[in-house]
TrEMBL record, chain A:
UniProt keyword annotations, A-Z: ATP-binding, Nucleotide-binding, Transport
GO MF term list: ATP binding
Membrane topology note: Peripheral membrane protein
Name of the protein in question: ATP-binding cassette domain-containing protein
Automatic annotation (TrEMBL), chain B:
Signal peptide span: none
Protein name per Swiss-Prot or TrEMBL: Transport permease protein
The family this protein is said to belong to: Belongs to the ABC-2 integral membrane protein family.
Main location: membrane
Domain of life: Bacteria
Membrane spanning residue stretches: 48-68, 80-103, 124-150, 156-181, 193-211, 264-286
Keyword annotations of the record: Antibiotic resistance, Cell membrane, Membrane, Transmembrane, Transmembrane helix, Transport
Transmembrane in keyword set: yes
Keyword Flavoprotein: no
InterPro entries documented for this protein: ABC2_TM, ABC2_TM_bact-type, ABC_2_transport, Nod_factor_ABC_transporter
Membrane topology: Multi-pass membrane protein
Length: 335, 290
């Protein structure tokens, strides 16, 4: 009645495989194309970051992968199962933690987990042990009998992650798992996520607006306007953006920019923090600046960050987007 | 990347989920039902408030109006009102239980059910059983008051009434799901409930006899209302067990199709059939929902 360990499947099978995925809403002239041809391959065991500005097609893609929406065109498989034709199989193999809480506030932590065990059909003899294990993993064993309403935001998230893991899914979808949490809860949560990745050998498909969380990923896809703009490891992506950034404050930034562009042949941009010089090798530029006779009040060199990568591919910053749209979206209710 | 590859080859834990089957569907329906019971048990305010309306009907309307209606017999208006009060009381409780699915949607829990590897029908059946059980439990409390309005505590009468209440509540919960399963916000569903439940109650024959004395249009509407058949079955059962008295003429109530008096088995069939159709519609609606 129960399936063989998934390990029997070929090890090379990707955890998520997306090919030519498209999704449009509406009909006729009012059609909106949310996803315009996404291709992705997430290997088993990866921590995969799925980044992009709001309305980039992230949520739509995740909903398709979780079988909550049907694609207009293209195919997607999760844990080797087609998300349209084998909906139930996909659901058995995935764990979901959405941005919005999906716990029953009026039940206890344990009652929420038991509900999940029954509706997912976890073999009865395994339920008690499994609940024990996941509660332990997220450090909520001593609160199992408490009504969820009494939990803090961080505890609820941990409980949701525990619940998402209860049926030992192969792929865990974490949609902005730490949004709205204070820094301490975020860091605690990540400690638990790291532990469970080791213990459960699971593929994690993560969306986030936090740079430090994106840095943790094995690989990242940056989605913008319904397509994948960039895909690679965090270090690879940073290298692809190339230039170091030399930030300058001078007596006259506009004049300085003109001189630098003319004499050194380097590209400059103006940002709120001042003048930024883009150079392949920042350390070598700094002495040259003084040789130009500029009145430099402050100078710093920084390597490209993921935020710069994000900016380069989407034209906006990771955190700005969240600050602008995050809280409003939290208030909205799931469709 | 090398790290990833080495992990790929590591042995992985099996997915702990049963293959889809009837046993799993039944288990899923059962836990949806259980959750409704747990929530009802912890919500005493709801239990008390759901008893308020039937008690007002029975003792205030029943005794008040009963004083004006001299039936000249042992069966007074409150006795007449008893089965209808049970049926309509259960109706309100069942509908409110059903529309809790809109709260579940608003507060996110519905999604936990919708992404589970189980059919949407199992969820609908669980919800209907939950609403039916909760409403029937309320019916038990009301049945305890039978003696106060001259209805005897006959075991067969009580059991039969409970069975009819359960069937009615099941059908009504299915009805409540049909009007709420696709609704996103509780504000949207409340007007629908108001709009539909009041006519269902007033046109059910719960409050007055449905017979030839009624104007034609009113008689027609009561006969089109499935609730009338639930009330009719319960009232005839109750009257059957009243201690050796003739029901006074003005309180006689019979549903007739043309000149043919509808038998009790057909009453039950109409309620069950309506419930079955509504259940099927609710299943389809939820299956097409996200």
């Amino acid at each position: 009645m129960f399936e063989q360990p998934s390990g029997a499947a070929p090890a090379a099978e990707p955890a998520v495989l997306v090919q030519g995925l498209r999704k449009s809403y509406g009909k006729g002239s009012s059609t909106v194309e949310a996803v315009r041809g996404i291709d992705l391959r997430v290997e088993a065991g990866e921590l995969f970051g799925f980044l992009g500005p709001n309305a980039a097609g992230k949520s739509t893609t995740i909903k398709i992968l979780c079988t909550l929406l049907q694609p207009t065109a293209g195919t997607a498989t999760v844990a080797g199962h087609d998300v349209v034709r084998e909906r139930t199989e996909v659901r058995r193999h995935i764990g979901l933690v959405f941005q919005e809480t999906t716990l029953d506030d009026y039940l206890t932590a344990e009652q929420n987990l038991r509900f999940h065990a029954d509706i997912y059909g976890i073999p009865r003899r395994l339920v008690a042990g499994r609940i024990e294990a996941v509660l332990d993993m997220v450090g909520l064993s001593d609160r199992r009998g408490s009504v969820v309403r009494t939990f803090s935001g961080g505890m609820k998230r941990r409980l949701e992650i525990a619940r998402g893991l209860l049926h030992s899914p192969r792929v865990l979808f974490l949609d902005e798992p730490t949004i709205g949490l204070d820094p301490e809860s975020r860091s605690t949560l990540w400690t638990y996520i790291d532990v469970l990745r080791r213990q459960e050998d699971i593929t994690v498909f993560l969306t986030t607006h936090y740079m430090d969380e994106a840095e943790r990923c094995d690989r990242i896809a940056i989605v913008d306007q319904g397509t994948v703009g960039a895909l690679g490891t965090p270090s690879g992506l940073k290298a692809s953006v190339g230039h170091d950034r030399v930030r300058l404050t001078t007596a006259d930034d506009a004049a300085a920019a003109a001189v630098i562009e003319e004499r050194l042949g380097l590209e400059t941009t103006h940002e709120r923090s001042g003048l930024v010089v883009l150079a392949p090798d920042g350390e070598r530029v700094v002495p040259q600046l003084f040789e130009l006779g500029l009145t430099v009040r402050a100078v710093s060199v920084s390597r490209p960050t993921l935020d710069d990568v994000f900016l380069a591919y989407t034209g906006s910053r990771l955190q700005e987007r969240m600050a602008a749209a995050g809280p409003a979206r939290r208030g909205g209710r799931p469709a | 990347m090398t790290d990833t590859r080495s992990r790929v080859q590591a042995p992985v834990a099996p997915v702990l989920v049963a293959r889809r089957g009837l046993a799993h569907e039944a288990r899923a329906a059962r836990v949806v039902w259980q959750r409704d019971l747990i929530r009802f048990r912890t919500d005493r305010g709801r239990m008390v408030s759901s008893l308020m309306q039937p008690i007002l009907f029975l003792f205030v309307l029943g005794k008040g109006l009963g004083a004006a209606l001299d039936t000249g017999g042992d069966v007074d208006y409150a006795t007449f009102l008893f089965p209808g009060t049970l049926a309509t009381g259960v109706m309100f409780t069942a509908v409110f239980s059903a529309i809790s699915i809109v709260w579940d949607r608003e507060f996110g829990f519905l999604r936990e059910m919708l992404v589970a590897p189980v059919s949407r029908s199992a969820i609908v059946v669980g919800k209907c059983l939950g609403g039916a059980t909760v409403a029937t439990l309320q019916g038990v409390i009301l049945l305890a008051l039978a003696g106060l309005v001259g209805v005897p505590y006959e075991p067969l009468l009580l059991l039969g009434t409970l069975a009819l209440l359960f069937l009615t509540a099941f059908a009504i919960t299915a009805f409540g799901l049909v009007i709420s399963v696709r609704v996103q916000q509780i504000q949207t569903v409340m007007p629908r409930v108001q709009l539909l439940l009041m006519p269902l109650m007033f046109l059910s024959g719960a409050l007055f006899p449905v017979g030839d004395a009624l104007p034609g249009w009113l008689r027609l509407l009561t006969h089109l209302n499935p609730m009338s058949y639930a009330v009719d079955a319960m009232r005839r059962l109750t009257f059957h067990y009243l201690p050796g008295t003739e029901v006074p003429a003005q309180l006689r109530s019979t549903l007739t199709w043309g000149d043919w008096p509808v038998p009790v088995w057909l009453d039950v069939a109409v309620v069950a059939g309506t419930g079955g159709v509504l259940l099927a519609i609710a299943c389809v609606l939820l299956s097409r929902s996200e």
